Amino acid sequence: LQVGLQAQALGERLGGRPLRQYWALHTFLATAHLLHGHKREVEAIIDQLLAQQDDIHLIAQSGYLLMLGRVCWLSGRLTDARRVFEWLDPLQATETGPAARLRTVMFEGLLALAECHYPVAKRLLQSAVLLENELPFFNNFGSTRILLAAVYLKMELTADALAETSAALAEVAGQGAPG
To answer: pLDDT-derived band of residue 28, with 50, 70 and 90 as boundaries?
Structure first.
């Protein structure tokens, strides 16, 4: 959080904020503030980024949108999360490959979970797990298996939730990733 705040201050002192770097920094800052319980700061960042909707084509990358949507969801701003998801639609034609498809399916599954559409969330997140397995790198947007485990818990499928959690922990350990 401190490093992010220092980067933000430096960028402002230098007088410019390239949009992609600005979005990357602020979506990470919103996540850090959220983890620290700084609700007011999270709300301000979300409002600031959502106000830039007209410039979305300049930074249009599904990763940034997924991060913003996740912060909206975790902040209880489901309507805004849904709005951000709709911004992903035009990217379908320009971003290809398993990573882009994963982010879209993962985001859609997250929304289905948040809206208590558990069978839909289960189907989407099962697909997302398969897409995540195709990635040649670590999915730094969060584990699809953990989201799927949350769906299983909501559906009272405890054994399935434990199996997904165990698989997620094994993957993290195998990759040497934090988790």
So the answer is: confident
